[in-house]
Amino acid sequence: MPHLPIPVTVLSGFLGAGKTTLLRYLLEAEHGLKLAVIENEFAESGIDSQLLGDQPVQVLTLANGCVCCSILGDLERALYLLLERLDSGEIAFDRLVIECTGLADPAPVAQAFFVDEELRERYVLDGIITLVDAAHADIHLQEAIAQAQVGFADRILVSKTDLVAPASFAALSQRLQRINSRAPIRVVEHGRIDLAELLDVRGFNLNAELGPNLNLRPAVPAGKNADRIATLVLRSEQALDIDRLSEFMNALLEQHGSSLLRYKGVLSIAGEPRRLVFQGVLKLYGFDWDSEWGAAEARESVMVFIGDNLPEEQIRQGFAAVVA
């Protein structure tokens, strides 16, 4: 009997940003969901002391039916163990939340759900949620890994906003938008937030939704102290040649694939009435045909790249050669 894929939310963020507080809220809230949470051994404080021990993987079922899993080994082992216990009826859950360590790159976690065929069939990556500590963001964002956590995000949650002035929060929001213009920014208060902001994000769905913030232009100019991670948006009102597009993307991934954190495009292809949509993480990407363009609709191609020190002018010149 085929299984419906289990939605997976990846929770990222630097040390002290409030991931564990948010997890406690998720596990204690009256939401009627059966959540499984994978927590690794480097979390700043465990959800429950019973999770800690000598075994590589421990599973604990809570009173409300949620499941906690503490791992001392690799993530895939924990994912398979949860599936085994789910299939045997030993535990029950319909959603999975994975907490990354504060110093962790979310990329390997995301890639696990694309590379392994069985995991790809049983789980579906719904979104990457990154928490940012407003009170210490200037210090944290000096680290490339903290910028990368923001760059990978489908949602950015800012905590401890009550500890900073409104002007400081506004400046931080502009900086976060410059790093990642795809991700909406939301405020989380002591771990509490509307679950609709965390679940069913569909950040990895192949569709024509590019995110609400793409037209925003941060007021803080990029300069010599600009962040390493930034968003590059390419647009064209002319239809694109699909063969030249393929050459452009192949060359881009060959040269800069390891620096492309997240990317997505909704494209108008010459001679084709349908939109072409694609998205990827590092060198892993997928594409498909979407709905047809409307008769009165402006056919504009938009490509969004969130990357680490990307050569902007070189990429813009390459994209300019793709028009039909």
Task: Explain this structure.
The strands form two sheets. The chain has an eight-stranded mixed sheet with strand order 3-4-2-5-1-6-7-8, with helices on both faces. A five-stranded antiparallel sheet has the order 9-13-10-11-12, with helices on both faces. The protein starts with 5 loop residues before the first strand and ends with a helix. It is built from nine helices and 13 strands. About 7% of the residues have low confidence. With 324 residues, the protein is an alpha/beta fold. It folds into two domains: 192 residues, P-loop containing nucleotide triphosphate hydrolases (Rossmann fold, 3-Layer(aba) Sandwich); 92 residues, 2-Layer Sandwich (Hypothetical Protein Yjia, Chain: A,domain 2), CATH 3.30.1220.10. The protein is globular.
